[in-house]
Design brief:
The chain has 12 helices and 14 strands. The chain has one domain: TIM Barrel. It is α/β, with parallel strands linked by helices and 371 residues long. The structure holds P-hydroxybenzoic acid.
Length: 371
């Protein structure tokens, strides 16, 4: 019987030494303190419970009010939010863990009710994401899933401002005690929209050719690197992902191009969200090896992995680490359960988004269950 020796081999990520290759994937939980979208002690407890992960990547955290697409997600652009995130980072470190904050701008995946002055959300071009919903609180106070709005096209000066907002958010995350930041370039949000052949219809230096479509993502990476250092920066991409109305056309080439550009910048890691997390086909082994060839530092994949498939993917030299989402959500001690081949708690989708302790901090560890 295999002992998952690859999953439990130590790994250096940037300047961090991590004890295993079992990462906690970023997951929106919509439980930030209100008003102000401020992380709380409850959020700190949730992450600290999961500190045995090789690396925790937090839920996505908007870098500005404009970058928000769902009610109750945490921000990283006010002093109160920074102080709230400090509670989270400190609690994880006290529990012996390591944590990256994911930096998020949703772009066109938003709604005027979430925006300052009820303005339209922004995107590379005025192209609406079809069959895509966001989450708002209606004027009468009821929460609702609603179709996203038609976005307004960003002007070049505004794009420069957004790059600065990413840099400022990275500074806040670093000051709050996070070990790394992860730039969210995946899953149909702003940076992915610029890469996308359908969402991006621009004719300026941010649209058209592949270097132009990748320009914003790489400018953001360079600005964040300049502030906190390349060894503290990870990036997430979703090659061939169709979540939030991304098109598969051109996506593979764009991902390979960005992976090789990031490789030149020697960032800490690249994190790949495979299409199967949202119901698509998983990447083929050949595709994963293609990414491996383009990026030489730490490469992590995330999809519907179990421990056995994660172990063989690392053993085959394709990945350095594997991130687990729903399994980590429901099993705070996931590495220990893998190690012991113990049964896993089942995630409850009805408590994924919003609410409080229930379905958040009350999934039992093995220790709690046997007590
Ligand atoms: C979501 O809130 O549904 C969400 C957020 C970030 C992702 C994917 C989905 O990358």
């Amino acid at each position: 019987m295999s002992s998952f020796s690859h999953l439990f081999a130590p790994l250096n990520v940037g300047t961090l030494s991590t004890p295993n290759r079992i990462w906690m994937a970023p997951m929106t939980r919509s439980r930030a303190g209100q008003p102000g979208d401020v992380p709380t002690e409850l959020n700190a407890r949730y992450y600290a419970q999961r500190a045995s992960a090789g690396l925790i990547v937090t839920e996505a955290s908007q870098i500005s009010r404009q970058g928000q697409g769902y009610a109750w997600t945490p921000g990283i652009y006010t002093d109160a939010q920074e102080a709230g995130w400090r509670l989270v980072a400190e609690a994880v470190h006290r529990a012996g863990g390591r944590i990256a904050l994911q930096l998020w701008h949703v772009g066109r995946v938003s709604h005027h009710l979430l925006q300052e002055g009820h303005q339209a959300p922004v995107g590379p071009s005025p192209v609406r994401a079809e069959q895509t919903e966001c989450f708002v609180v209606l004027p009468d106070g009821t929460p609702a899933r609603v179709p996203v709005d038609l976005p307004r096209e960003l002007q070049p000066a505004e794009i420069r401002g957004i790059v600065q907002e990413y840099a400022a958010a990275a500074v806040r995350a670093h000051r709050a005690g996070f070990d790394l930041v992860e730039i969210h370039g995946a899953n149909g949000y702003l940076l992915n929209q610029f890469l996308d052949l359908r969402a991006n219809q621009r004719r300026d230096e941010y649209g058209g050719s592949l270097p132009n479509r990748a320009r914003l993502l790489l400018e953001v990476a360079d600005a964040v690197i300049a502030e906190i250092g390349r060894e503290r920066v990870g990036v997430r991409l979703s090659p061939k992902g169709v979540f939030s109305d991304m098109t598969v056309e051109g996506s593979w080439e764009a991902s390979l191009y960005v992976a090789s550009e990031l490789d030149r910048r020697k960032i800490a890691y690249l994190h790949i969200a495979e299409p199967d997390w949202a119901g698509g086909p998983p990447l083929t082994e050949e595709e994963k090896r293609g990414l491996r060839g383009a990026f030489s530092s730490v490469l992590a994949f995330c999809g519907n992995y179990d421990a056995a498939r994660a172990e063989t993917t690392i053993a085959a030299g394709i990945a350095d680490a594997i991130a687990f989402g729903r399994l980590f959500l429901a099993n705070p001690d996931l590495p220990e359960r893998f190690r012991r081949r113990a049964p896993l708690n089942t995630p409850d989708p009805s408590t994924f988004y919003g609410g409080a302790e229930k379905g958040y901090t009350d999934y039992p560890s093995l220790e709690a269950a046997s007590a």
